[in-house]
Amino acid sequence: MQSATSLMVSNDADMLIHDSFSDVDSGESNIVLDGNFRQIMAGVSEAYNNAELWQSRREILSIVAPKISLNFLQLFIPGITRGRFSAARLHAKKYSAGSKVEVTTKVVQRFDDYQIAHFVDFVISPHVCTDLPFGEKILKLSSGVELFVPNTIRNMGATRIIEQYLLYCHEMCPDFEPLGKISLFTILDTCKASTRKSLQGINYFAAEAGEAFDGIRKMIEDKVALHNDSARLIENLKRARFYLKSDYKVHVARSSNITDHCCVYALSDPEKRDFAQDCDHEHNESCAECSNLTRTLNEIERLLEETEEDEELLHRTLKKFRSYREAIEAWKAHLLRSINQDLCRENLLDKLSNDEIYLNLDWAMKFLPIKSREPQSEFFGKRGISWHITVVMKNDASAEDENSIFDEDTDVLDDSQQISEHEMTDLFCTCF
Asked: Would you say which domain of life the source belongs to (predicted)?
């Protein structure tokens, strides 16, 4: 437009543009606009000026902003900036023109002690944390008091723990209001624990089952060209592995209507009545995830039988597959036994009196002696020494005596800073 006016009046181009577009509403304007359009834009301008909040103004602008240019809009709404014009166009593209968006206000609320206790109980449960029979962590309170706690290992990452906790609250206690994710991450970061990175020295069942899942997946990938359902079987296998690693330990209970989740039924010997116990309920329900594991393994076995033509190779393949399947089922049985054992241990600790102790004798690992300098002949073939550890646990009566010297009116410590009177003391005795 500047070029066109320069050709017509080279000396007064700016004045011509100003006189032509400075006042569209005046009768002296040289631009002829449709009367209805002028009324619509006048209404939009009036609504924009009467709106008090920028959110309302943006919604009004989103009606006309995608259809006209910024310069043309400035003729009706003087002072409109390019940033607000672009925000109105983005609003129209994201939410549709003129739509009202409800803004959710985030209110910071003070947490309650029972919310923290509920999450901590979930974190220290056996299916999330594994207690190590050696080592300890130091927790320092805001009052300066240092607490020595046994070293633990978390079986899952922080994100997975929080997702499982929120799902647990939704299913098991829908009326309970858990803390927000940021607060839960802060608690996990504050609580001292290690993250499981290597399974070999901690749980051979889990290590062998992990190798079995990888081996079965490799078998399926080798048959991708011969079978159309290979991708589905691999996905179901990953789903079953993740279920055993996380949610299965939450579903197992002392009494359940699902056979795979009922400790009493699953651990009873079907042949020897001395090692069996009758359930007081029926097992008339099934678990979709447990059924998925069994069904997937059966389909994979049929896949191997259908795609392998050589009889000798088929025999070797099925033998390897069945060894993998036994490792997976052994891991599942081990999880069931460990949960039942933890329930028994918790029951004993709850009933432990001040004049009683709890002894836990367990094999820890192989101890490999290392020298600063040794020949290669001494390193290879070295026999490990079995390392057994005894954990002694008792109720600390001294903590109760120390707390009793503080009067309720003169107690200067906050409730969150006091040490529980039932604090457990762990004594570690190592024997070879």
From this structure: Eukaryota
Q: What pLDDT score does 19 carry? A: 52
pLDDT tens, position by position, 352-370: 888 888 888 877 665 655 5
Q: Yes or no: say if 393 and 349 are a contact pair by the CB < 8 Å rule.
A: yes
Query: What are the b/e assignments for 69-108, b being 16+ CB within 10 Å?
Result: eeeebebbbeebeeebbebbbebbeeeebeeeeeeeeeee
| pLDDT tens figures, 131-161 | 665 566 676 767 777 777 666 777 777 888 8
Tally of CB atoms within 10 A around 240: 23
Which tokens go with 113?
């002690």
Helix (H, G, I), strand (E, B) or coil at 387: strand
For 51, 147, 387, 391, 426, the CA distances from 134, given in Å and listed in that order, are 68, 16, 11, 9, 10
Amino acid identity, residue 57? R
Is residue 9 packed enough to be buried (19+ CB in 10 Å), middle (13-18) or exposed (0-12)?
exposed
Neighbouring-strand partners of residue 147: 139
Q: What is the reported pLDDT for 170? A: 85
Whether 85 and 63 have beta carbons less than 8 Å apart is answered as no
| Residue 174 CB burial class (10 angstroms; 0-12, 13-18, ≥19) | exposed
Distance CA 374, CA 378 (A): 6
> Cα dihedral sign for 61, 63, 65, 68?
negative
Q: How many CB atoms lie within 10 A of CB 119?
A: 22
Tell the burial category of 171 from Cβ atoms under 10 Å away from its Cβ (0-12, 13-18, 19+): exposed
How far is the C-alpha of 85 from the C-alpha of 70, rounded, in Å? 7
What pLDDT is recorded for position 368? 59
Cα→Cα distances 275→77, 185, 267, 268, 356, Å: 87, 44, 8, 6, 29
